[in-house]
Predict the structure.
Amino acid sequence: MHVSGWAGATVPGQKTAAVYLTIHNGGRAADQLLAVSSPIATSGSMHRTVNAGGVLRMRPSGPMSIIPGQQLQMAPGGLHVMLHGLKAPLRVGSRVPVNLRFAKAGIVRAQVTVQRPGKAENHGHHAH
Amino acid sequence: MATTPTEPSRSPLRTVRLVIWGLVALAAIVFAVLLLRPQQQDQVQAGLPGFTLGGPFTLVGADGKPFSSQQLAGKPYAMFFGFTNCPDVCPNTLGRLAKLRNQLGQGDDAFAIVFVSVDPKRDTPEAVGRYAELFGTPIIGLTGSEAQVAQVAKQHAIYQARVADPQAPDGYTVDHGSAVLLFGRDGKFVATIAQEEGDAPALDKLRRITA
């Protein structure tokens, strides 16, 4: 599993942050991402934002499957990890450690960089 | 028993008839007054009879003081509804507006970015103020009482509903309308920017309101 990604910056008082991961399954078997956590937050959960009829709804996504040779790309307005209970604000440029738990690959640790939200193009990207 | 049956019954019947006609006349007057008054108001306040997107509103600013839509008079603005605990679309939409305003190249004064919280229960004036600072460019953060926010959302045709989510902080999230609403210098609604819309058409619309 190759994992990269970014997290949205936050200000003091904000309890939640989004993390967008890109996960490449370089193995031979399909795997499932079951959970994501971070030592900087009390908990993490995987969500999907759905923009249906002009209304934004954010819902738990459930486990995400990744077939061999493919990558799962999370992006604003779609799949994301929501960290909540942040222990400190996420400052632009800092690194956030994340722990991913897969059904087969087990725990995979990664680091993501904090970016100012909206910096990346936030449309036309859909999670696969 | 040759009584005149009409005599006693005639006068109450006439009274009833008179009362009914009187009521009809009164109803017609009341109806005419009610019908004419709002029509006149509509014509003054709006171009479209019946419904106007936007219009005057009062919320609470980041300083805790009332914020009147009059403070936006003469200035184009882009309005987005969201909440500070919304980690995904809200910050990315505001960040994108900040980026687009920068790309427009007319400075931070070209148009105002107005963020209205649909989560007044958690979003205090202080919270929306701090949140607005996240984007490194002036953003007007607004909140208010639940009634104020509900009214302003309704005025702008923005759906909003609290939904239980055990994984979210405090056990809930807020579903809300996703469009960015654009208003001209005269405070009149011009267009929306949809989430899925590309930067090029969005910039065209922003040029229209800032022209």
Notes: The radius of gyration of chain A is 14 Å.
